Amino acid sequence: MDTEEKELEVVPPAVLSLSNCPGTTPGTPQSKNQLKKQRKLAEFAELRKLRREREREKKKQKRREAKEQGLPIRTGPSRKELKKRQAVDGGQSALSVAIDLEYDDLMQERDIAKCVKQCLRIYTINRRSAQPGKLHFTGIRRNGHIHESFRKNDGWENWHVEYHFDRGHTDVFDTSQLVYLTCESDQVLDKLQPGCTYVIGGLVDHNHFKGLCHSRATEAGLATARLPLSEHVDMKTRAVLSTYHVFELLTKVAAGQDWTSAILDTIPMRKGAKAKVTNGKETQGQLLVQDEDLEQDDDEEHDEKKQEAEVKEPIPTVSSETETENQLLGS
Length: 331
What we know:
Layout: H1 2-8, H2 32-68, H3 79-88, E1 96-100, H4 109-127, E2 134-140, H5 145-150, E3 162-165, H6 169-172, E4 178-181, E5 197-201, H7 212-219, E6 223-225, H8 229-232, E7 233-234, H9 243-254, H10 259-266, E8 274-275, H11 292-309, H12 325-329
Parallel strand pairs: 1-2, 1-5, 2-3, 4-5, 4-6
Antiparallel strand pairs: 7-8
Helix pairs in contact: 4-9, 9-10
Protein name: tRNA (guanine(9)-N(1))-methyltransferase
Enzyme class: transferase
Keywords: Methyltransferase, S-adenosyl-L-methionine, Transferase
């Protein structure tokens, strides 16, 4: 009887899935390169604090040795002096600039990292300027990738920057006092106006969204202007300036430098810029390259090499004044 019951017992059919379906190979969620990259990032995050502690000890040792030998301990302004400088020069006459970071959803991960890197560069330029201006980072989404990238930098919340989360420049400032800087504008920025806030688009897109900043600004009813590059210099290539190049140019002009010398001191030498030659009539010497994407990529590559070749300028944070830009970015 027991044998007959076993023979009559019905076995339920097996549930098919991607893991047991005949002829199907389970897919891997990530590639080997992605997994390797994640492991490296995790290892770097664990060792970051240890490396910074070692660097601080090395800096302290160098200061002690310099003091014993009677050498100057510091080559640049102190942290206290920089803060005092910003407090004194932060009046109504100071330059006011807002970096528009409302393009979070239009950039890939590597471009977001470049965008934040340029923001760090802008912060350093402003903080070490002889006349620091008011710097605003607007349009940062609290749950966005740009915010996540900022959070990788220790002490970033305490930087001398006005952060505006989930609020764009039109929500923070009076629109009548905003001037959005775009190369498509018909208006030329001849002189910086006191009381105006100049908006720079924080978009790294390799010209995939050409004219987007200008169209958004005009739709919002904002005044626009372009930098007077072709009015003051001749270049052998198209003027594709990064966000921090535009900011650096504004700070130099706000400090009293003329446009021609400020442009020549700011833009990369590889562009072959020369002061405008006038023979009764100005010649427009701005040439365009055939591939705009390659031009901007070359500029970014040149900027990175230039930064590596420069004397390491520390980006101040709460934990250490001597941490470099690459260490802050964790790259």
